[in-house]
């Protein structure tokens, strides 16, 4: 794989609230996890009514996305429509956020980042020379490495682990290995 520009955004794995469901007439409790890139932190202020008084509450919220784009010399960017509020500073889940570091790819690590070429479309009137200068963009995804086989990498954006140890994946993406430019492991 060719050397490419490094994605400067760091990923986190965070646990959502535990979920409960029934399976074969048995109550199952499960832990639900997501992997996201941290793209911001915002301060907030909201008010809580307590009897006759209203008291301000302040804190911070981590903002995350599942995908980062890079096209040519343009800055790294993401679609604002996919920005998620991950955790608040007053949220009990803040202890369940694990910051991940990028290392060399290893099949032993279940969380990875992949960068792959993604077709782009451009609008507007441009000359043939300008068209010839256009390149495919890069997409960076971080998630759970489910499998690599038959020329494809299967990456999940979320996983659920039940109290019996069964793992279920969600948000599956199947990417041809031929367009992948880099793979890295993400470790705590």
- Strand elements, count: 13
Structural class: mainly beta
What level of helicity do the residues show? under 10%
Indicate the low-confidence ranges by residue numbers. none
- Summed over residues and divided by their number, the pLDDT gives a mean of 87
Rg on CA atoms, Å = 20 Å
Which band does the percent of strand residues land in?
over 45%
Tally of alpha and pi helices: 1
Shape: globular
Largest beta sheet, briefly?
13 strands, antiparallel
- Structurally, how many domains make up the residues? 1
> What is the terminal separation in angstroms?
25 Å
Q: What sequence of helices (H) and strands (E) makes up the elements?
A: EEEEEEEEEHEEEE
Would you kindly provide a written description of the structure presented here, covering whatever features stand out?
- The chain contains one helix and 13 strands.
- It is an all-beta fold.
- It has one domain.
- Strands 1, 2, 3, 4, 5, 6, 7, 8, 9, 10, 11, 12 and 13 form a 13-stranded antiparallel beta sheet that branches.
- The radius of gyration is 20 Å and the shape is globular.
- The model has no long low-confidence stretch (mean pLDDT 87).
Identify the notable features of this structure and list them briefly.
single chain, mainly beta, 13-stranded antiparallel sheet, 1 helix, globular
SSE layout and pairings?
Blueprint: E1 11-15, E2 19-23, E3 26-50, E4 53-65, E5 67-70, E6 84-88, E7 97-99, E8 101-104, E9 111-118, H1 128-132, E10 137-149, E11 152-162, E12 167-176, E13 180-187
């Amino acid at each position: 794989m060719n050397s490419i520009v490094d994605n400067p955004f760091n990923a986190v794995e965070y646990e959502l609230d535990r979920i409960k469901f029934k399976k074969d007439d048995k109550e199952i409790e499960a832990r639900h996890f997501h992997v996201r890139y941290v793209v911001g932190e915002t301060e907030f202020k909201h008010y809580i009514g307590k009897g006759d008084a209203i008291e301000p509450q302040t804190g911070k919220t981590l903002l995350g996305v599942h995908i980062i784009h890079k096209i040519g010399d343009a800055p790294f960017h993401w679609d604002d429509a996919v920005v998620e509020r991950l955790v608040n500073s007053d949220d009990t889940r803040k202890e369940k956020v694990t910051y991940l570091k990028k290392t060399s790819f290893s099949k032993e690590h279940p969380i990875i980042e992949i960068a792959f070429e993604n077709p782009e479309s451009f609008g507007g009137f441009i000359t043939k020379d300008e068209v010839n200068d256009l390149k495919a963009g890069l997409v960076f995804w971080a998630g759970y490495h489910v499998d690599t086989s038959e020329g494809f990498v299967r990456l999940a954006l979320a996983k659920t682990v039940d109290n019996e140890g069964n793992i279920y994946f969600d948000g599956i993406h199947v990417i041809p290995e031929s367009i992948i430019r880099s793979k890295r492991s993400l470790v705590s």
